[in-house]
Amino acid sequence: MSKTERATLNLGVLGGALACTLFVLALVTQGSQGLFQINRPAADYAALLIQRAPFLRADLGLDFIFIVVYSAFFVSLALVLKRWVAGQPFQDNVATVVNVATAALLITGVLDVAENAHILAMLSMAEQGQSIGQSEIAGQMVESQIKFMFSYFGMFVLSFALPQSTIIERLTAFVFRWLQLPVGVAILVLPVELVRPLFIFRAIFFFAGLWATAWIIAHRARPAS
Predict the structure, then answer these.
(1) For residue 62, what is the enclosing H or E element?
(2) What residue numbers bound the domain in which 212 lies?
């Protein structure tokens, strides 16, 4: 196993653990930053910010770390995927696919940081008794939706660069390509009261996807170790 493969493997395992922890935290506290990714009356939004402040700060703090880890993971994964096809006649096509997917996922990271920072800024305003404009709350919802769409696009494109020799590899590519996108879009367009099961699926997808990709790297590197 090369140093890059080992680093990617470790980042995938760590990223999955962080995503799983965020999921468990959301279940235990009955909510997360997802509560602030939807539009609601400004007074209710501000009251919810103050009510959820301790849990929200913990959630966002952990999410900041997760953003760094998953961004580093996808950069490292891009290097691994390109290395695996080096010398193959289709290596340039794979490199293009990987570059597009990585760019989209890094943009996701940037938007994720901006979203977290914006929520913290609105929390500070609410704690100081300052009014939060309704348009700002709607803007937060738009920002979240754009972030998720870059994520869905990046994972969709990435599926075409993943190896698909084993059952787990094919299943991972199938979920990245054909499940996470329609589920994610459904969350964006359906009424909030209908999408709770889909929220759970999306949360599970985040850590399961990272762990599955880490498994692929470990499995592929094993013969050379």
Answers:
(1) helix 53-84
(2) 3-224
* Helices 91-127 & 134-158 angle (0-180, nearest 10): 160
**DSSP codes of every residue in the chain:** --HHHHHHHHHHHHHHHHHHHHHHHHHHHT--GGGGSS---HHHHHHHHHHTHHHHHHHHHHHHHHHHHHHHHHHHHHHHHHHHTTTSTTHHHHHHHHHHHHHHHHHHHHHHHHHHHHHHHHHHHHHTT----HHHHHHHHHHHHHHHHHHHHHHHHHTTTS--SSHHHHHHHHIIIIIHHHHHHHHHHS-GGG-HHHHHHHHHHHHHHHHHHHHHHHHHHGGG-
pLDDT, averaged across the chain: 95
d(CA 122, CA 125): 5
Instruction: Tell me the C-alpha distance between 82 and 99, whole Å.
Output: 10
Per-residue pLDDT, averaged over 198-207, amounts to 94
**Nearest one of 59, 161, 71 to 120, comparing CA atoms:** 59
Residue 9, CA distances (Å) to 63, 72, 221 in order: 20, 11, 10
Task: Please give the Cα distance from 213 to 40 (Å, whole number).
Answer: 37
Whether residue 106 is predicted with pLDDT greater than 70 in this model: the reply is yes
Rounded mean pLDDT, 182-197: 93
Give me the number of domains the chain comprises.
Answer: 1
Q: According to the model, what pLDDT value does residue 223 have?
A: 57
